[in-house]
Design goal:
Layout lengths: L6 H5 L13 H17 L12 H10 L3 H26 L3 H10 L1 H11 L4 H25 L4 H23 L12 H4 L7 H20 L1 H9 L1 H6 L4 H42 L3 H25 L5 H19 L5 H30 L6 E3 H8 L3 H13 L3 E4 L2 E4 L1 H24 L8 H7 L5 H10 L20 H4 L19
């Protein structure tokens, strides 16, 4: 009798009592279809296997009607909070590789935890992974203490060795009778759809422990992370605090394995914290931002994986975190590329305008302030540019309402005259300060004053005037102007006044 081989025949290929069968093309087709269906059934996917519209899937996700969706959302949020909080300490201590090494080092413990009773017992796997992770960190510490190798080298060695051992153990366990049914392979890349009540209880306990410990010892952990030397001077148990942080990190890594897997858990430790570091310079706010970004990344990954079929949750969580990091890198108000470029561009324009105002003041000063206008040709000669470039600089002043242009002659407005006096005063006061306080030769202070004149604030200028015994003439014998009064009428009454004469005017006529 011929026909497709039965499962029993495939399990006993050497049994001579069973007849041999001829594997026809139809048999290969049936086998291929069976394997494909098995692959779909074991996909790391939250949603159904039926093809539905993504809008229907989105509405179904938002309704939270499926228990698997609720479990995945709650688990990913807990994961994001715990990993985000601990990742902040890793980032500020420049120990990002430690999280990666620890996440890979737990894989042998996962395999040994499965070997305990040959099934996926969350508690046994948690204990085995925790022991393996702590053993990996102990090996790293022992290598750095007893050899000349640096910590990053030891971390790389432990990462590769433990991960390789874990892969070998997993491949061996797959050959066991219950290996293919255990689901142990989900710990490599995660399977948030398989989160159950036991996994959620474990993740909730770990998250509560992390939040509670960090809240109770926040000041001590903060001091150990930023200034361990000062912490030792204060007699704080720095070694013990570091071990507590390492233990909490191991707890968080092991609890996150089921959702994102060994390969991707380090990304959930680092990316949210790195994103938060771009949003604030205060550490406590960084921790809050990191926890929030981790939770949002987890929910986004669960939502995106639910929209289609056979879409894994763990990689989408990491991609969501990466997108948030990209947005922060581009648009963060303080450290973002876009706002920083805008600030630098604005600063370049401001410096160019101030240099033009200074040049106009110098032309007027060279003429004894006998005129209130400066020819464009004279400005171009002073700036050492051609006429067109000088006209562009004047146009920038006109748009900023700092000057007016008429008949190829530039006249400063009252606000423009104030700006010109201020930038010249900054330059000459700084030159005087360098020659008086730093004992620098007068012919060596000009270049430094060209840079610092644009960043001196009014408070700094007042401090310089108080420290200098005489702040009316610069080292080259030129008068140091003071900022003129805002009233144009007052500004036109005086001559080029010194720092001791207020208000000063422009026009040079006393």
């Amino acid at each position: 009798m011929t026909g497709p081989a039965t499962p029993q025949a495939r399990c006993r290929p050497h049994d001579r009592r069973l007849p041999r069968v001829r594997r026809s093309a139809s048999g290969w087709l049936v086998a291929a279809l069976w394997l494909a269906s098995a692959g779909v059934l074991h996909a790391a996917k939250i949603g159904d296997l039926t093809e539905v519209r993504w809008t229907e899937q989105a509405a179904r996700f938002l309704s939270m009607a499926d228990p698997a969706v609720r479990h995945a959302c709650l688990g990913t949020v807990l994961l994001g909070v715990s990993c985000g909080l601990l990742g902040g300490f890793l980032v500020v201590r420049r120990m990002a590789l430690l999280g990666d090494a620890l996440s890979h080092a737990v894989l042998p413990g996962v395999a040994l935890g499965f070997l305990w009773n040959l099934e996926k017992d969350p508690l046994a796997i948690f204990v085995g992974a925790l022991v393996a992770g702590l053993a990996g960190s102990a090996v790293v510490s022992w290598i750095t203490r007893t050899t000349r190798l640096k910590e990053d080298t030891a971390l790389g060695m432990v990462l590769a060795t433990f991960f390789g051992a874990g892969l070998c153990l997993l491949s061996m366990f797959q050959r066991l009778p219950t290996g293919n049914k255990s689901g142990i392979e989900s710990f490599l890349f995660g399977q948030a759809a398989a989160l159950g009540p036991g996994d959620l209880q474990l993740m909730g306990a770990v998250t509560a422990l992390v939040v509670g410990m960090l809240a109770l010892g926040y000041k001590e952990f903060l001091l150990v992370s930023f200034d361990p030397g000062f912490a030792r001077v204060l007699a704080l148990p720095t070694r013990r605090l570091e071990r507590v942080l390492l233990l909490l990190l191991a707890f968080a890594v092991v609890a996150a394995l089921q959702a994102v897997g060994v390969v991707l858990v380090s990304a959930m430790l680092i990316i949210p914290a790195a994103t938060a570091s771009l949003l604030t310079d205060r550490f406590h706010r960084m921790l809050l931002w990191s926890a929030a970004i981790g939770a949002v990344s987890g929910l986004s990954g669960a939502f995106l994986s639910f929209l289609g079929t056979r879409l894994p949750t763990g990689p989408f969580m990491v991609l969501s975190a990466g997108v948030l990091f990209g947005l922060a890198l581009l648009f963060s108000p303080r450290h973002g590329i876009g706002p920083r470029w805008i600030r630098q561009r604005s600063q370049r324009h401001r410096v160019a305008r101030e240099n033009t105002l200074k040049a106009i003041y110098q032309v007027l000063e060279s003429g004894g302030f006998s005129s209130e206008v400066v020819p464009v040709e004279a400005l171009a000669s002073r700036r050492r540019v051609d006429r067109q470039a000088a006209l562009r600089e004047v146009g920038s002043l006109v748009r900023a309402q700092l000057a007016t242009l008429s008949d190829d002659a530039v006249a400063l407005t009252p606000s423009g005259w104030q700006g010109a006096c201020a930038i010249v005063r900054n330059h000459r006061l700084w030159e005087l300060y360098l020659t008086h306080a730093a004992q620098i030769a007068p012919d060596h202070v000009h270049d430094d004053a060209e840079k610092i004149e644009h960043v001196l604030g009014e408070a700094t200028v007042r401090e310089l005037e108080r420290r200098l015994p005489r702040a009316d003439v610069d080292p080259h014998g030129r008068p140091i102007p003071s900022v003129p009064a805002a009233d144009p009428a007052m500004g036109r009454r005086g001559a080029s006044a010194t720092a001791g004469d207020r208000p000063v005017g422009y026009g040079g006529r006393s």
